[in-house]
Amino acid sequence: MSKVIVIGGGPSGMMAALTASKNHEVILIERNNELGKKLKLTGGGRCNITNNRDIDEFFDKVVNNKKFLYSSFYTFTNSDLLNYFSSKNLEYKVEESNDHKVYTKSDKATEVIDILKGDLIQNNVKIMYNTKVIDLIVNNDTVSGVITENNKNIYADKVIISTGGKSYESTGSDGLMYDILQKHNHTLNKLYPALSPLTIEESWIKKLQGIALQKVEISCKIKKKKISKIGDMLFAHFGITGPVVLIMSSYINKLLENDKVTLTIDCLPNVSIDDLSKALRENPNKNVLNNLKGLLPQNFLKGIFDVLDLSDKKTNELSKKDENRIIEYLKNMQLTCNGSLGIKASMVTSGGISVKEINSSTMESKIIKNLYLTGEVIDIDAETGGYNLQIAFSTGYLAGLSV
After folding, report:
1. 20, 216, 232, 311: which has the highest count of C-beta atoms within 10 A?
2. Which residue among 286, 320, 340 closes a domain?
């Protein structure tokens, strides 16, 4: 029986350790005093375990390097993951109207962590808490163990790295492993914030702070190609956030490094301009704002009408020019995005170790023999909705299976 070291006790590392433990002696090294610290934050603390879409549909939700994930996703699918948790008596729910997201029935991430931890203990995985790995032991392009902070050498036949990215640094994702891997000849593709709130240049949107909109369409052009996403959003003092904004941020993060990006927001994607025009003039004797009651939140409409200086305008006094201004703001709102809140505020790290240097069928490094990489440390990221957690579980499972 060979020995395997897994570095990182997040979802990917726990799954890698668990899978490897079926055939090997496994040591799981975690720098915190608990497992799954970042997992507790997913889904707003509710734990968005995965997504219930068909696994074939997951690839369209991957932003970077989707082809790399074919072996991982099909070796350990979302159905496999849910079957595993069901076998451990975890109750979950599928929110069909919320992009088919899967949550624990109790809305508690701790249930997921407790199951994984319990299974690790049952499978005799040795867990080393409060232990920081500061280097790998590599000779002749082959890994043979790790060096911890107190300069202790721990030897093993195989090493799996599941240390995450640089998002949520307080959970231990400080990017140290990137430096270690670069030192040992791996290529680090530039890091960007993914699934991050966006900052907006226009100052007038501060009047909309705290207002939420449902099922809006946000679009922009990237290299002459239109990217369009539909979902919920929230106005904030710095700009905009919410699920659809976070998703859009992952597509424009590289552009924002050198330029501003114009975002177009259709607040009523299911209402045509003609129908909106009719609604605006439905009751000639009413205030124009009241005619739109029911279509959008009143506090949002009030904010927009204040910006346009049309709050007290009667319908029978509304000029065609002002009607077009209202429609423009509701159907074709132009916002100048000048950045994001950065990698520390992002849910996921975009960029990481190049997929060209990893065997996608086994997750083994092509640079260092017997070294495996999983999850967010690799240059792969996806939209919000449980897809990134599935990437973590799937790549972790494949690595654990392959050692």
Report:
1. 20
2. 340
